[in-house]
Amino acid sequence: MNSQNIVRRSATNALTPAPHVRDHQMEVAKLIDVTTCIGCKACQVACNEWNDLRGEIEENVGVYDNPRDLSPDSWTLMRFTEHEDEETGVFEWLIRKDGCMHCEDPGCLKACPVPGAIVQYANGVVDFQSDLCVGCGYCVAGCPFDVPRISKKDNKAYKCTLCSDRLAVGQAPACAKTCPTGAISFGSKEEMKDLAASRVAELKERGFEDAGLYDPQGVGGTHVMYVLQHADDPERYAGLPKEPKISAVVEGWKDVLKPAAAVVGAVAVGAMAAHFIGVGPNTTEEGPHPGGGAPEGIRRKEAAKASTADEDNQTEPGSQA
């Protein structure tokens, strides 16, 4: 993405360009209809191939989740859940594509202490700038969806980029391009919300009264949305949070601790400057002895200590040796 499309940067309030840039930039979104997903994992393969990711070989432990979790080398993951309704006894096989949600109000960006290490583009995509990342892990703590992962190889944070490089040249994300059932759609957020409304209406006609769109407002909405047949209970889809929001700790860091740290730093620098101007640099009273060795003052103190020690070791007059 062109740097001129960046509207937010981590650890800074600067906007480049001004906020009104969004008046001329289409906000995009990816819509995932879990009711038409068959769990084929074509999206996983497409993501790995496009981003040249090679995950570690894992042991088969009897579940369909493979790999078992997101990682620095696995940015998207199919999660499978066997759910039985306690009231009706109906058994369901629920599948969800997991990855970065690209929040409109991203907790990772707010938590990051490094200027520009995390950016948000005018189209809504949240992206990591790995060359600036220091691997502190604050983005992991700040994400209400537990998505970013820190690599042990280079100590950098990684996650889905929503194929920002493809978007920059007018292409859809690799996962959306590959999906064989049309479960993943991509376009403007307005178009995706309209598409979601039509699919939700179809689900309700089929008897899923609680069907709805997952676009949580606790994070300002997301640029990855789900159509759920049980939108009233998103947690049954492998722990998708019902009301995700940025933690108070992250908000405190952004609104209180960051400014306070800046003030303390400024005061410290000011105090040092005032001392230098008013008193001058810290110097010793005596410089090095011309003949080498310790300064004269230090040598006099050492000689006095030696003399005192000699006097203490002498026997008093009249005492028996």
Automatic annotation (TrEMBL):
Its main location: membrane. GO terms for biological process: cellular respiration; formate oxidation. Residues 280-321 are annotated as: Disordered. Residues 28-58, 91-123, 124-153 form the 4Fe-4S ferredoxin-type domain. It is found in: Cell membrane. [4Fe-4S] cluster 4 binds at residues 112, 133, 136, 139. The keyword Transmembrane applies. [4Fe-4S] cluster 1 binds at residues 37, 40, 43, 179. GO terms for cellular component: plasma membrane. [4Fe-4S] cluster 3 binds at residues 100, 103, 108, 143. [4Fe-4S] cluster 2 binds at residues 47, 160, 163, 175. One of its GO terms (molecular function) is metal ion binding. Keywords: 4Fe-4S, Cell membrane, Electron transport, Iron, Iron-sulfur, Membrane, Metal-binding, Repeat, Transmembrane, Transport. Pfam families: Fer4_11, Form-deh_trans. Its cofactor is [4Fe-4S] cluster. Binds 4 [4Fe-4S] clusters per subunit. PANTHER family: FORMATE DEHYDROGENASE, NITRATE-INDUCIBLE, IRON-SULFUR SUBUNIT. This is Formate dehydrogenase. The lineage of its organism: Bacteria, Pseudomonadati, Pseudomonadota, Betaproteobacteria, Burkholderiales.
